[in-house]
Amino acid sequence: MLLDRYEPYFFNSNFREGANAPGWEAYRGELVLIEGEITDDQGRRKPPHALFKQAIVLACGDELKMISGSLEELQHWPNFMEKFGADLKPDTVAVMFTVNIPKPFIATINGAKVVFIPLTEGLCWNELIDLVALEKGDFKGQGAGEKLLTVFNAFKGMKYKFPESTVEEALKTTNNAKREVHGAV
Question: Structure pTM?
Answer without folding.
Answer: 0.91
